[in-house]
Amino acid sequence: MMKIFLNRIFCPCPTVAALGLVVAMVMSASGNPALAQELKLDPVNVAGPDACGECHKTSVAVWKKTRHAITFKELPRKKEAKKIAKNLGIRRMKADSACLSCHFTSAQVKGKIKPISGITCESCHGAGKKWIKEHSDYGGKGVTMKSEKPDHKIARYAKSEAAGMIRPMRLYKVAANCYGCHTVPNEKLVNVGGHPAGSKFDLVAWSQGEVRHNVWYSKPNGEASAARKRMMYIVGKALDLEFALRGVAKATQKAAYAVSMAKRAAAARKAMKKIAGAVKTPEIEAIVAAAGAVKLKLNNAANLTAAADKISTAAEKFSDAHDGSKFAAVDALVPGADKYKGKPAP
Question: What is the per-residue DSSP string for 278-298?
Fold first, then answer.
């Protein structure tokens, strides 16, 4: 029973200074047609950070100094990463590797699929080849962002999203990409490889630190507004709960992975109850109810997955329906600047 897991003292796995992984892939990245289905992004549709940098030069400049970028070169050299790879029988992290999905961005280059960089713009905002031209077309030759007509802007955004772009305003969808890697749905990777089951990720603390790139609409790389951070905190805790439940659902044995996921789910459930005590919305009530109705135990995949699906639906609805302006009651729970992960670029 998972209750026994939660009460048991166990030694956590060695940490590695990078993101978690999603799927175990022991195939070559050299043109395998199944690879696009395994990776979080379809390499055929990946444009690469240079394509984004044509307009978002400052944002890409900030990105290049973060661990999201430097993991491309640094990860294969890390002692912890090498140990995990050896445990799993992986010879090349950028080829026959479970590392490709979260630590790297792969693209089709001269007919072959290969990793081209670390965690990129597209890791959060979606593979860009199908929407990048639409997104950067302000209405014809000579028209700029400032001179673009309002109706064209509305249509441009709608078409870009329809083609797969995830805009920052779609907070749940953007943040789901974070939790999809920071919470590892791969039991073998943890139990056999010794990889952590996930990082101590908090959407506010980590997004407002080193990786902050709030430079598009204003030059200063300022913090998100108080209202935005409230939304980040609530949506982040809902996603933490959702992905932890999915992790427990995947667990098959009483070992480190199951223990870690159950602990994460229990902590996230407790956090959502605190939020529910401060903020009253139907979506938050639905999240708490779904989490409270399911048992954290092995061999309960169907019920755990169903609960996670309900939380997903409610969290996305909450994200799209509110702006955080009326949720000042959660300010005491939202991490302050002293908790931010690293220092943002000036």
Answer: H---HHHHHHHHHHHTS---S
